[in-house]
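Question: Send over one sample?
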Amino acid sequence: MTTTPTKESFAVLEEVVAAAGLPVDGAEPIRLAENDLWRLANDVVVRISRSGQDEVAAREVAVARWLAENNVPAVRPVSRDQPVHARGRAATFWELLPPHRQGTEAELAPLLRRMHQLRRPPFPVGQVQPFVRVAERISAARCATEDDRTWLLGRLDELKEQWAQLPPGLPHCVIHGDAWGGNCAVTDQGALLLDFERTSIGPPEWDLTSTAVAFDTFGTLSATQYADYSERYGYDVRAWAGYPILRGIRELRLVTFGMQAADQDPEALDQAQYRIDCVRGRQGRRPWHWTAVG
């Protein structure tokens, strides 16, 4: 633990663990990113949210407990009062998963279907916010030209208007909000859901579009894999008239994430510009075979 971000995260960890009455000796970082994950020696995982996310952290725990009550396989929070706060950040405590691997889209689909079929919980989860931080990322991007930033802000306004006029689709329900294979883990006991930071009320098509974009935009799924995913869920979102709108929003979010990454890492510059060029019509038709950044 020699880097400043690690030291800062560990300082928060020490305070929240002490407040929770747990031992900090032997704690090891799992991942330090927007949210910091630490594994304690007693096999409890501590998730430290970024500053200003107190309400989100509390909602994550509430959603996970609600899923447990409804027998939906998901990561489970430790049975204690939480979140715990320190230095302007909220920390939550979770059971350590047994050995596992990342899930596939086909393994994710049945979990999403079960979640989408549940009645709404007795606590507020808020409405889906598809444009959170998009404008801020565009305006702050140093890697993009002024012309590209202006075009992207115009595209954002266009998509906001389209979102407000989405055609009828599936009934709104509780959605995961960030439904990709990385938020599905598979243990010897089966597949389960992870990460409820963006769980909210919204169109289930929002969740399904994540995988459709992996097929349409990234080209990382084959037609057979995508068909298997749709069959396991029971619906192909690409057949819905509103799909191009949701795909456009997802793509714009991914463009701005690439721009944010490029401002922090010069190695991401080419990919960030390529994504901009794609949505601006400079790189032909999909799939564009975007590669991961960040």
